[in-house]
Amino acid sequence: MQGLALLLLATLQLVQLVQPLPLTIIHQPNHALHAPPPGTPHAERPDRLDAIMDELTSSNLGATIITSSNPLARVESAINATHSSYYLKNLRKTVGGLNSDTYVAPGSYRTILTATSCWLSALDLASSYSGPAFALTRPPGHHATKEAGMGFCLVNFCACSALEFLKENENKRVAVLDIDVHFGNGSADILKGLKRARFASVHERGIYPGSGESKAEGENVLKLPVPSGCLGPEWLEHVNQALEFVLADDPDLLIVSVGYDALSEDPLAGLNLTPDNYAEAIGLITGRFPKSRTFFGLEGGYALSATATAVRKSCEALM
Ligand SMILES: *[C@@H]1O[C@H](CO)[C@@H](O)[C@H](O)[C@H]1NC(C)=O
Ligand SMILES: CC(=O)N[C@H]1CO[C@H](CO)[C@@H](O)[C@@H]1O
Ligand SMILES: [Zn+2]
């Protein structure tokens, strides 16, 4: 009798162990403080995230939606470790344009702190085997290099998270996959040469930021440009190749910088993906690496309704 009870208990515990954890979405309540100056229309605007959150909250997704709450000192130290103090000093005192396409509003630095905090919360979940998690933040971050914001990006949240993980785990490795339609030059810039990190980007050839050609960028960085007009199957093949590269040295964590500007509706780029192609990419990713140790963070995506649909389908694929 006692033996049976023990067996039952053990089985229950086993079921709990293999039961996948639900998706956690981390959202950024103050994101609208980062807004373009009145009267100057800009693709990177608060509506982007509002449309996504509306779509997610009105669907029966069943994901846990939380906000982040990291101590300010941790968030700042992750940012300080990623960008030069010269650049950050300049960023904090700038209001207006950092350059012609990248604006800074009075509240931008505060939204940057919460966005970083959201990515760190997603990191904490995935690094304690409690993923998948998805940080839904803006503006995007993957073009920001150590020394400069550009391409709508002020701080590189993806790089902040990867470096934080490497700092907290001395012997572990991190894999970073970037599937925004633009080459993640900032993430490549910050991660190249790091022994315990691998980075791969799948992006449209010949568009912004112009440095996405497949020339070598150090042994741990792979650039996989696809031609304009590219459809789902060819793109997915490249995503698969990118995954193979970043997973080759048995990483402990996978970070996915996901931009939805490869959708055919996107006004800024020329690929022809559908929302279902994003769900298929998520399927490829979770088929090759445990989703409990994976987290996603939002980069671009400027066609509001198609992006919202594709984010929902991505989340459904993660459930
Ligand atoms: C980050 O750097 C800024 C400016 O150099 C400094 O004021 C701040 O105290 C630093 N924060 C942490 C947690 O290191
Ligand atoms: C690693 C990398 O490609 N960095 C590039 C990012 O884009 C800027 C602007 O095009 C270049 O100056 C960097 O070299
Ligand atoms: Zn992009």
From TrEMBL:
Q: Write the signal peptide boundaries.
A: 1-20
The keyword Signal belongs to this UniProt entry's keyword annotation: yes
GO function terms (MF aspect): histone deacetylase activity
Histone deacetylase domain boundaries: 42-317
* Signal listed as a keyword: yes
Q: A biological process (GO) annotation for this entry? A: epigenetic regulation of gene expression
Listed InterPro entries: HDACs, His_deacetylse_dom, His_deacetylse_dom_sf, Ureohydrolase_dom_sf
Could you tell me the keywords of this UniProt record? Signal
Q: Name one Pfam family in it.
A: Hist_deacetyl
Q: What is this protein called?
A: Histone deacetylase domain-containing protein
